[in-house]
UniProtKB/TrEMBL annotation:
It comes from the Eukaryota. Residues 100-139, 328-432 form the DUF7154 domain. It comes from Caenorhabditis brenneri (Nematode worm). This is DUF7154 domain-containing protein. One of its GO terms (biological process) is innate immune response. The lineage of its organism: Eukaryota, Metazoa, Ecdysozoa, Nematoda, Chromadorea. It holds the Pfam family DUF7154.
Length: 445
């Protein structure tokens, strides 16, 4: 309906204001075209959506669409919709003078862009304090599920060898109350296997190693990994809230719409580490894996098949360091320096720093990528400068290492130098294992 209105030629669209009453939620998740059109026409909307829907699955799409187009989305009971309309009276105050969509989590304070007022007058302030998607109620330290998913296109001996790299140590093992596994990229979709102990989990995986006779017939077929993630998030047999996944990908997906998975993973505070082969067996869109990880506080490592064992060992955030304490996805291009949000450390301990220096493009474009952290009492670095590594070990697009941190705030900075001018996001994560944290790290879009 919105799309049709924006395409109409009978009335002016530029600067138009829309008030929309929604009783039924959409099922579609791709609204990128509407965002482009609304921004092109400087059109924005106020959606008044019922908390008692008559159908549909994705109320979050309404809120996200409004956020990205300087609009607003109200959720309320049917009986209160008219009162809500009075309190969000853009009809009587049609001239927008300020818009901000700060991302928040837990508690704290955030400085917003300044409000510049040109005339002495009365102004109407409106704030949506949350969308209507209630996140799961688990905490970051509650026991949860560990999922290991692996492509059927890998050599069976490789998958078997990876099992020794993903065994949680005794400190971390209590964090996982359930274990799950699945083999994907098979002609016939397989079911998840759920276990209560890690030993049972190992036995199941060893009995379901890749079988070439089950593989897709050609390399034009894309991976079904996105459907696998979606199915796991919808399961009711093991805890999903706070779940951690290790996903080994040999074949890339062909689909490009992953917005529904992002919404579900954020709702459940679930995240993954993807280990993707640079020797793909098929599929067209490796960038989808990296983008999906960026938007859900995950990581996506690209490496040769033979080095994935090394990658699992050096990006061991699920099995040895399951507690995320910092996430940033700075966008960089060419060369320069960027100041990142500060890192707040709650407990003196050893922390694992991980950085994905780029997506799956050739590593020859990376001249230098160095992450620095400093305060009055401590400092450190992680990264590479030419052939010299500031710290840690690297293979593929990833680098990681342990660092002791004191219980205080650190200023974070990224220096970078790429030989091309392509815009790319660097994934930076800090995880801990000795001191479970009591909050969910906000997402960096």
């Amino acid at each position: 309906m919105i799309d049709r209105f924006l395409d109409n030629t009978q009335v002016p669209v530029c600067g138009s204001k829309l008030v929309i009453f929604a009783k039924r939620y959409p099922n579609e998740t791709d609204y990128s075209r509407i965002v482009v059109k609304m921004r092109q026409h400087h059109s924005y909307l106020t959606i008044l959506a019922s908390n008692e829907p008559s159908g549909g699955n994705h109320p979050e799409i309404l809120y996200d669409l409004a956020s990205k187009t300087n609009g607003m989305c109200v959720f309320d009971d049917d009986d209160n919709i008219l009162e809500a309309e009075d309190q969000v009276e853009t009809v009587f105050h049609p001239s927008l003078v300020y818009a901000a969509n700060p991302q928040v989590s837990g508690n704290g304070r955030i400085q917003l862009p300044p409000l510049l007022v040109q005339d002495d007058s009365g102004y109407f302030f409106t704030m949506m304090m949350q969308d209507n998607v209630e996140p799961d109620s688990c905490t970051a330290s509650d026991p949860t599920t560990f999922l290991f998913a692996y492509s059927n296109d890998f050599d069976p001996s490789l998958v078997s060898s990876w099992l020794r790299y993903i065994q949680p140590n005794n400190d971390v093992l209590p964090h996982y109350s359930k274990f799950a596994s699945i083999r994907f990229d098979t002609k016939t979709e397989e079911e998840f296997e759920y276990q209560n102990t890690f030993d049972e989990f190992v036995t199941i995986v060893d009995n379901h190693l890749p079988d070439p006779s089950l593989s897709f017939d050609n390399n034009n077929t894309g991976s079904d990994i996105l459907q696998i993630i979606d199915r796991f998030l919808d399961n009711t047999q093991v805890p999903v809230c706070g779940s951690k996944m290790i996903i080994c990908v040999k074949r890339y997906p062909n689909e490009t719409d992953y917005s529904q998975i992002v919404a579900k993973m954020r709702q459940h505070h679930s995240y993954f580490t993807i280990f993707a082969s640079t020797n793909s067996s098929g599929g067209n869109h490796p960038e989808i894996l990296y983008d999906l990880a960026s938007k859900t506080n995950g990581l996506c490592a690209f490496d040769d098949d033979e080095n994935i064992s090394f990658a699992i060992d050096y990006v061991d955030v699920c099995v040895f360091n399951p507690y995320l304490v910092y996430a940033a996805n700075p966008q960089v291009s060419g060369n320069g320096r960027i100041q990142l949000p500060p890192l707040l450390v709650q407990s003196y301990s050893n922390y694992w720093f991980t950085m994905m220096m780029q997506d799956n493009g050739p590593m020859t474009v990376v001249q230098a990528v160095v992450l620095s952290w400093v305060n009055d009492n401590d400092d450190g670095q992680l990264g590479k400068n030419g052939t010299i590594f500031s710290s840690g070990a690297s293979s593929g697009n990833h680098i990681g290492n342990w660092k002791y941190l004191t219980a205080e705030s650190y200023n974070m900075q990224l220096d970078y130098n790429y030989t091309d001018s392509k815009e790319r996001r660097v994934q930076i994560r800090v995880h801990g294992h000795e001191h479970p944290i009591d909050y969910w790290v906000p997402y960096d879009n």
